[in-house]
Amino acid sequence: MKITFLGTGAAEGIPKFGCECEHCRIAREKDGKNVRQRTALLVEAAGHRILIDTPPEISIQLNKSNVFNLSAVFLTHEHFDHIGGLVEFEYWRYPIHIFAGIELLPKLRLTPRMQKNALLSPFLSNSSVYFGGLQIIPFRVMHHVPCYGFAFVEGEKWAIYLSDSSFQLSSFHFHLIRQADIAIFNTPTFDERDNHMSVRDVIKLVRDGSVKRAVLTHINHRNYIHEVLEKKVAPYGIVVAYDGMEIELG
Questions:
Q1: Tens of pLDDT along 148-165?
Q2: What is the DSSP string of 110-155?
Q3: CATH class of the 2-248 domain in this structure
Q4: Average pLDDT over residues 2-15
Q5: What is the β-pairing status of strands 2-7 and 40-45?
Q6: Where are the domains of the chain?
Q7: 3-class SS of residue 105
Q8: Which of 74, 83, 131, 160 is the most exposed place for a label (fewest CB within 10 A)?
């Protein structure tokens, strides 16, 4: 299983346009890992490619990663930074299969051309979708709109993506996190905040032994710059993702 972090920025991306904060200034001047397009994941396993979310930059991200075919797109929730680029698939060469929670599908606004090219399929929480040897399990997380995380299972390997989850976790969430070889968390800020996990929340999970391997993504410009954030979480073995980073589970 291979996971590519196509984009790792939160809702505004970094640099945020119109913002003159230090983080955004550094991103503009130095480029590199501090430049973050909005968050999307590509999961490759069992001969399939699964795209998680379609931020406004999705066509740029797929072009940069030389992705020319997808088995399916899975959407986490309705916020613009997660679905704002969906209409880019109006010009996809093939019919595109789009999976989303039953609450989200009626809210998608597709062009007439894309309506002819898109196969919309609802999923239910804790159900399973199979692509050959890859099992995908959507599960609800706590957010201020209906939102889903995903478990990706290939053989004995498990990866968990918690999307925009808050730190309100159930016993089921803890079971999934402990089962996972890698757990990916959306952490816009370092300190606690409503509706999203923070970096401090993930540190707590690592300290109590709930997580084998933690990765942070969906970073906000109010968080630390990449180099500083890496140093702060390095003692806990936490990885800070950057745009284009790849992780392989053997």
A1: 999 999 999 999 999 999
A2: --HHHHHHEEEEEE-TT--EEETTEEEEEEEE--SS-EEEEEEEET
A3: alpha beta
A4: 97
A5: antiparallel
A6: 2-248
A7: helix
A8: 131
